[in-house]
Input
Amino acid sequence: MQLVPLFFSFKERVVLLVCLMLLCCFTLGFKSYQFHTLKSQQTPQIKAEVLLQYTKTKNNKTYFVLKLKSDFGIFYTTTYEDLRTIKHRQVLLRIVLKNVGFLEFLKGFYAPSFNIVLLQDSTFKTALRQNILSQHSTQVMGEYYLALFLADSLPKQWRDLAQSYGIAHLFAISGFHIGILSAAGFFILGLLYKPLQARFFPFRNYFFDVGFIVVVLQLAYYSILTQSPSYLRAMTMSAVAFFMLWKGINIWRIEMLFWCVAILLALFPQLLFSVGFYFSCLGVLYIALFFKYFKSPKGALKKLLYGIALNASTFFQMSIIVHYFFPPFSPLVLLSLLFTPLFMLYYPFVLLAHLLGFGGVLDAPLVWWLEIPTRTIVLNPGIYAFLLCNALSLVAVKYKSAFLALLALNIMCFCYGVYLYFYAF
Output
């Protein structure tokens, strides 16, 4: 089938951009309406889900910090009330928005609160969490799989390990996970669909029917996730790409990433402040640039080497930008080049294991791995290196030399980090 371009003229691009700008204005207008409606109340009562709960001490007084998700977004509050564990529970509380501005409202804010009331716990998500936790003998492993499947916060022990091995991207549900789940979904649904198609409806389009079911399952999965900007970006790109391919539109262009990002920012302008969303978009950009400048070869061995090179290129391209936000560094991050492809087998296996009720089958080796001591140093590339990488990323869309320069710069930064790790600390 001959694919047609998404746009035939510059005018069509301008029209879509104007439409998205108007959509963004409408979205911001609605957010502004929500904000001023809440501000008009002296102490509005909010229904929210508790995403995180931990304690802090100040002036010899201990208090709870709560991260909450409401209909209008994410916010933080503190309380001196003597709370039991209410993580992932629904609560009613009154908040004070007196010192909160509209920009803070969009980004996620802090507001004092009082009168916290615990609501009846009977949601599907709660039952699902309890089912996952019940399959593990240790809390840390149960919470690890809650992070892996439901985008909950990763336990501290696992966060430290993820930083040491450079595998945080494996635990943050994103396009990588969607790719794995979609491939598994196509395979399993294909086994069920093809016999039925051959017997009852041979006139149906296999790609559209199975692909549509996979997209619907992606949407259903997002509805039970706690929060995941990277998954939202990947899910939107997946859905848009599927329907455009079905319509015969050529999606194999880097420009598609720009328009998907623009659509998401028009619908969810708060994503502009999400580091996870930023990382996710850059990762896709670097993969697309690799495909653009290095064509896939023929032959099984060459394809395998091509896949290894793609993995290594994306890993190094992200180095400076990741360490600008998250300075901990260890040479162990090189192992992520091995863990990333292995995760493609591990993830569907443990998902199936949890569906069958023996999710703890790999707990013993994982706990052993978790207890291996590691050491990290602080590697902060600085603002100028960060800005240079972003500039080169944009120029690399047009010039291969910029792509190679970006890769070389990141490799040098990594080598400098290895030197600091062994000789300067």
Notes: Strands lie at 45-58, 61-70, 73-79, 90-95, 109-110, 113-118, 328-329, 377-378. Residues 241 and 251 are 6 Å apart (CA to CA). The longest strand covers residues 45-58.
